[in-house]
Specification:
CATH topology: Outer membrane efflux proteins (OEP)
Keywords: Cell outer membrane, Coiled coil, Lipoprotein, Membrane, Palmitate, Transmembrane, Transmembrane beta strand
Region (Disordered): 124-146
Main location: membrane
Helix content: 55-70%
CATH superfamily: Outer membrane efflux proteins (OEP)
Number of strands: 4
CATH architecture: Up-down Bundle
Oligomer: single chain
Distance between the termini: 56 Å
Subcellular location: Cell outer membrane
CATH class: Mainly Alpha
Biased composition (Low complexity): 130-146
């Protein structure tokens, strides 16, 4: 048997070329038609935006030289050990790792949605073995006496859904907005955990200072007890003075012991935030407390771009807006262009040959004529979701402004209180000095000294507790201001992720 040529004759090539040209022209026209979309034009929802913060008096304006503006806001505290702990948190925290994995999942949805805009190419090859009953008619007998036939096939298919109504692109827009929201959520949880670690660290350092204060006070109380016991043996003081001195000493010792578990809790919390087991981490005591920093403020309007939780809420509004277009597109027909071709033969030896080829090409139009209101319900649902996300965005903005105002007034009040408490502490120290001199001169009894000592110690600890509150409030204010994060980083990080 003569084997036909495997190449197309010139006439057939011209026919295929003409058909391919017409298909290409049709595809280009469809691509131009696909520029239309059915989702509403997106505009950032209106939200309350004050001109200035109510309690911003006394704060400086942020500028690019500030650590807060650069993003490494914890550097404002000037503590190298704290900087290292935060870097370990950024690298090893498991909650951050969870949100990072969620963001990567969102990225895969973007890639999948983008791929749906392009044609898909499928290749299949196989062998089938079939049998059909011959019946009673002799004319239906197969050439194969057993009635079993082998079929070899190889097929290449191309299909493409024309995005006439923007359904695919709106789906892509929705996934891109959701991915940016996920990235903002990652930034928000990272900022929250950084804030938690810095607060724990600062409180631990205040406890170290309280421990040094109590140890020095215990030494003074021990000397007072020894002096009172000597006076009692000499008949100068009564037994009640000795009892009072012992009570004061033991109460202070108990306060010192109580600090041990408080410090351990902060130390363990820092370890877990860095992704370590508490048993594997220890933080040596320090002789200094980081200074209260000067916190630069941005304008209220900039808060919308500085807080990742607000940026995330807005991206969710964008995704909900795009999903309205996807739902509306369901009312219109879907157009799919497909082409396929290959070879099919019952003989393996001449399987791939010109006589055994086959091909098909053509569009497919599909539209739902009746669905008992299912599409209408889906459109209404997406509109309701949009309204929900708008309300959530506005509430996020209000919460952001509230947090900033709360911490601003808290720091302002703490600053005024600190001035008064410093004056009270200075008076208590002077009173203690004069009272101890009078006691040593024998002018007053020890019970008078105990009362003054108790007052002085209470003022010392109050000043430290107030410093702790001011440091914690400063961290909370920085976090409320966004920690130097910028919404513009979302697009940059998205481009970087896409390039990877």
């Amino acid at each position: 048997m003569t084997r036909p040529a495997d190449v197309c004759p010139p006439s057939l090539q011209r026919v295929l070329a003409a058909r391919g040209s017409r298909l290409l022209t049709s595809a280009l026209c469809l691509a131009m038609l696909s520029a239309c979309t059915l989702s509403p034009d997106y505009h950032r929802p209106q939200a309350p935006e004050p001109v200035a913060f109510k309690y911003a008096e006394g704060w400086t304006q942020a500028n690019p030289s500030d650590a807060l503006a650069r993003g490494a806001w914890w550097e404002l505290y000037g503590d190298a050990q704290l900087n290292g702990l935060v870097e370990q948190l950024n690298a090893n925290n498991q909650t951050v790792a969870q949100y990072e994995a969620q963001y990567r999942q969102a990225q895969t949805l973007v890639r999948s949605a983008r791929a749906s805009l392009f044609p898909s190419l499928d290749l299949s090859a196989g062998k089938t073995r079939s049998s059909q009953g011959t019946g009673s008619s002799s004319s239906s007998l197969s050439n194969n006496s057993s009635g079993i036939r082998d079929t070899y096939s190889a097929q290449l298919g191309v299909s493409w859904e024309a995005d006439l109504w923007g359904k695919l692109r709106e789906g892509l827009n929705a996934n891109e907005a959701s991915a940016e929201a996920s990235l903002a959520d990652l930034a928000a949880i990272r900022l929250s955990l950084q804030s938690e670690l810095v607060q724990n660290y600062l409180q631990l350092r205040v406890i170290d200072e309280q421990k040094r204060l109590l140890e020095a006070t215990l030494a003074a109380y021990q000397r007072s007890l020894t002096m009172t016991q000597n006076q009692y043996r000499a008949g100068v003081s009564g037994k009640d003075a000795v009892a009072q001195a012992q009570t004061q000493l033991k109460s202070t010792q108990a306060d010192l012991i109580d600090l041990i578990w408080q410090r351990a809790q902060f130390e363990n919390a820092i370890a877990v935030l860095m992704g370590k087991a508490p048993a594997e981490f220890a933080l040596a005591p320090s002789t200094t407390i980081p200074a209260l920093p000067q916190i630069p403020l941005a304008l209220p309007s900039q808060l919308l771009e500085r807080r990742p939780d607000i940026a995330s809420a807005e991206r969710k509004v964008m995704a909900a807006n795009a999903n309205i277009g996807v739902a509306r597109a369901a009312y219109f027909p879907d157009l799919t262009l497909s082409m396929s071709g290959g070879y099919s033969s019952s003989s393996f030896s001449d399987w791939i040959s010109l006589p055994n080829r086959f091909w098909s090409v053509g569009p497919q139009l599909a539209v739902t004529l009746f669905d008992a209101g299912k599409r209408s319900a889906e459109v209404d649902r997406t509109k309701a979701v949009y309204d929900q996300t708008v309300a959530q965005y506005r509430q996020s903005v209000l919460d952001g402004f509230q947090e900033v105002e709360n911490y601003l007034v808290q720091l302002k009040v703490y600053a005024d209180e600190a001035q008064v408490r410093d004056e009270a502490l200075a008076s208590a120290r002077e009173s203690l000095r004069l009272t101890e001199n009078q006691y040593k001169a024998g002018l007053i009894g020890y019970l008078d000294v105990v009362n003054v000592q108790t007052t002085a110690l209470s003022n010392e600890r109050s000043v430290l507790n107030l410093l702790q509150g001011r440091l914690v409030a400063s961290v909370q204010l920085i976090a409320a201001l966004g920690g130097g994060w910028e919404a513009a980083s979302l697009a940059a990080e998205e481009r970087t992720a896409t390039d990877r």
